[in-house]
Design brief:
- With 104 residues, this protein is α+β, with helices and mostly antiparallel strands.
- It has a single domain, classed as IHF-like DNA-binding proteins (HU Protein, Chain A).
- The chain is 38% helix and 26% strand.
- Strands 1-2-5 form a three-stranded antiparallel β-sheet.
- Strand 1 and strand 2 form a beta hairpin.
- It starts with 7 loop residues before the first helix and ends in an 8-residue tail after the last helix.
């Protein structure tokens, strides 16, 4: 998809388009099941690897002191967990196969 991106409903529609034997409802269940498994794995602190696509993992961010740029007030930022994605070799190569750099 050039230019716009893709939202979940478009992904489901594309899945149905490419697999005519799959109903809209079944495609939605498949997509939701995959995403739920990824989220559940990350919530359990596990690493989720999809060969050729990439690896989802959780990174822990330490507590820190920051500053509100509008008021210059000092703010404590608590520690938190953040999702991280590292693309697989196949995905990385496919994205960069014909890349020519930014076009002016």
């Amino acid at each position: 998809m050039a230019g716009g991106g893709m939202i979940k409903s478009q992904l489901i529609a594309r899945l149905v388009e490419r697999n005519p034997s799959l109903s809209q409802r079944d495609a939605e269940r498949v997509v939701n099941a995959i995403l739920d498994e990824i989220v559940d794995g990350l919530a359990a602190g596990k690493r989720v690897e999809l060969r050729g696509f990439g690896v989802f993992s959780v990174r822990e961010r330490k507590a820190r002191i920051s500053r509100n740029p509008a008021t210059n007030e000092v703010v404590e930022v608590p520690p938190k967990k953040a999702p991280h994605f590292k693309p697989g070799k196949e995905l990385f190569e496919r994205l960069n196969r014909n890349y020519q750099g930014p076009q002016d």
